Fold this sequence. Notes:
Helix content of chain A is about 75%, strand content about 5%. Chain A is built from 23 helices and two strands. Chain A has helices at about 5-25, 25-50, 80-100, 105-125, 130-140, 140-150, 155-185, 190-200, 205-220, 230-235, 240-265, 265-290, 295-315, 320-355, 360, 365-370, 370-385, 390-405, 410-435, 440-450, 465-480, 485-495, 495-500, and strands spanning about 60-65, 70-75. In chain A, strands 1-2 form a two-stranded antiparallel ribbon. Chain A is globular. By secondary structure, chain B is mostly helical. Helices cover about 75% and strands about 0% of the residues of chain B. Chain B has helices at about 5-10, 15-30, 40-65, 80-100, 105-125, 130-150, 155-185, 190-200, 205-225, 230-240, 240-250, 250-265, 285-305, 310-335, 335-360, 375, 380-395, 400-410, 420-450, 465-480, 485; strands at about 65-70, 75. A two-stranded antiparallel sheet of chain B has the order 1-2. The model of chain B has no long low-confidence stretch (mean pLDDT about 90). The interface of A and B includes residues 137, 140 and 178 of A.
Amino acid sequence: MNLLPYTIYVSFAGAALSLVAGMRSAAAARAVALLAAVSAWAVALTAAFRFTPSSEVLTLIDLPWISRLGIHYHLAVDGISLTLIVLTGLAATAGVLFSWNIEKRTGEFFAFYLALIGGVYGVFLSADAFLFFVFYEIAIVPKYFLIAIWGSTNREYGAMKLALYSFAGSALVLAGLLWIYASGHASGFSLSQLASAAATLGHPSQVALFALLFTGFAILAGMFPFHTWAPTGHVAAPTGASMLLAGVVMKLGAYGCLRVAMPLLPGGLEFWQPVIAGLALIGILYAGLVALVQDDFKFVIGYSSVSHMGFVLLGLAVAEPTAVAGAVLQMFSHGVIAGLLFAVVGRMVYERTHTRQLDELRKLPLHRLLPFAAVVFVIAGLASMGMPGFSGFPAELTLLVGVWKVSKIWALLAALGVLIAAAFTLRVIQVSFFGKVEPVDLNRLERVEDNTLHLHPYAPITWPEKAGTFLLLAATILIGLKPDILLNWIVPSLQSPLMKVLWHGGAQ
Amino acid sequence: MNTSYAQLAQALQPEIILIDGAVLVLAIDLIFGRRRTLATRLGTSLAVGALTLVAALVASLLTGALGPVYDNGLVLDTLAVAVRSGVLVLGLITLGVAAGAKLPRHPAEYTAIILFAITGFTLMAAANHLLIGFAALELASLSLYVLAGFDKDSPKSAEAALKYFLLGAMATAFLLFGFSLIYGLTGQLNLSDIAAVLSTQGGLSPLLGLALMMVLVAFGFKAAAAPFHLWAPDAYEGAPTPSAALIASASKLAGFTLFLRILWPGLGHLSGDISHAGNPAGWLTIVALLSLASLLLGNLAALAQTNLRRLLAYSAIAHTGVMLLGVMSAQISGVGPLFFYLSTYAVATAGAFGVIAVLERNGGCERITDLAGLGKRSPLLAGCLAIFILSLAGIPPLAGFFGKFAIFAASLQINGVSSPAGWLTMLAIALSAVALYYYLIVLKQALVAPPAPDRATPIRVPLATTLTLLICAELIVLFGLVPSLLLDLF
Lengths: 508, 490
């Protein structure tokens, strides 16, 4: 169990090593990156097997770091963070596999990639708000370079927008944390110390602080109207980075809301609950409708991410144990499914057809040219729609049941979002993979590859792609069939001393 | 008067070594340098200069915190020792930068004047007396004016020196006027005595207010705080790169220390109170206004820069805004956060100028776009630049982040967010998101953009500069990971 901190160290060491290895050969960098990602994931899985669910937060390491400010290097884990750590390992490993074809500056790519992963592990393991914030910011800069150097469409704009949004969000968080620390005369930055400091503040301060902290985190979670970085960022990013962005980075924001903003300021949550729920619902519906009319395949997936993260935010906002458990499950589920969708669109389709425009894809018989991609996308699309048997179903169901207990109207509106998700997913499946077959644009087919096989003008799907697909599909089906694996971790953790304040209707 | 000259000589060992070293540099060059190449002469001068600085550093650390010296004219407390050592280390960095920069025409004179400037800085670190402080400041400033104009072939260097000199001289006049008013009103020159007299007088008389104004105007000039910043972009742009590095780093550290001593221990009774809007005004109010102006102007003007050095100058102005916050909160939280911020900022900036210096010798580095392809041309330079710039931007786990964090935590202690200091802190945090934009623009050129066709050759970095840059980068990472190393000094 105590090995979990090594997920962080292994990732950062892997980043440094792949930078060095990349100076020799791209293959070495890839091998190092895969090794680092897999070992970190293996550590996470080992920890998960030995994990006994409890309402306690299990401290892994707690050393004084900056004694003057009462800051500790304090790593801890509970069921919620464990769920997300396992997700991070999975998404990271799959992302490395789907980045196997990066030839340009390979070593640097994986260095930034693993540095980002290390930061993400760090956030999920931090029990000290300062440490949390440090890791949270460490995760920002690599994203910029991943997109700006290796991205596609409008990459520099997308990268800068994403970096500035993230940094603006973290500035709000920093302001909020410092405010609590100073005004509440906290003796340190541990979450419990900050919580008791925040409790001494007046209600108006709590309300304002909650707005600061929650908005700061929710920017990264893609909350409407701060979601606009997400589609442009996801679209511009290289496949591996899109998978991480949608798969785990957006979860950082949601996790911050759940772990920091909500337990520290339950009074603020009570005040803002209708607003957040409203924004989350607008996000679900609006992003879903926007996804319905996109011309770019990747934008569809980008907006669908925003829509799905709306569910997470709604589940958090209602502050009801079932809904929150559903929200955490949805974080996991969306991380896996969005990774899969981005992998198909970005890696399997775009890197072979060199287009993501739906009206161009419509002219290609992709289900015959890339049958593997078509099958995977259909399965992932079904999972994304919330079909039973895949992880999206138990997640959204649990979430909606929880929301229903609090407000039937919200639950109904959110259910409408599920319908819209089905609509845009089916549309994109239909248009991109099962378009008109007859008028095949032969010129295009010939241009793409020098492969002489008529039926397979594109490079065949490679083994890393298949391996990555298999991992993600297995995860979504496993959790779809047996969601209790994760729910058994998550539910007891919601009764931890810090979280408990949420279920008693807020302010002391 | 309990003036002990023996103690004074002991306390001033570093300064004595520095002056001797400067003379030695000149002598060696005069005797042996006649027929050597410029590069050899520079190498010799820098080596002797570096040895001098190391000797002075050792002397300063061995002397340690003696406490009040020479009838309280100098105070060798922890802060003085820390700043002295910091300034000497920054001097070493400057010499390392000079090793990689374009050759100056008179290397020995250049090195000697750098040593004189550093002598001024070390004295500023310990001065507890208006006249000693003034003399030290002038020794440093006059050396810096010469250093700024040292490149006689470059009209920009001349412009930089002239602007720096004229505005600096005016600031000096203000400062001296302020000091004489203070002397006239209190009858004392020693900061401790001034504080004692002020505590009995109480209240802010109009003349004292005028004196405060004058001192703060001078402070604003020396620290490059808006609206007294006008010399900074030109000086940073035109001065030879090592000079610019010294002006941006050691000069800031020493200057802030001197004014911190004048303001808190000396004029602390006139600080006023900014824990609530509408409380009695004092110099804190003015410092808060300077901080506000610097934060806004520095960050917003930096957005529009295309010249790398001007960008660094405006970023320096923005950082001055945060440092002024640190000055305001030094009474409550101690000088630790401010010292941490100043020293790590100085190392990062000096390092960034080191990268610029090497680039200038290899094809020029005027515009930000001249950095294009740096990652390919020299991974070392690009990596170091990334660390310096990200530290300036305040990205953890680099030292710049923790500096900001510590100062913000301290300035919020004044009275939470309901005091003007709290508002300023919130503004500074918000503006740090703005600042990330221009820092990323720099890094985008260095790491993302491909090299320009005419400048695609790999860059060879001299060994001394390589070492200097690596040490700077390591210091930034080290102090970021273990801030207590510096913070627990105080």
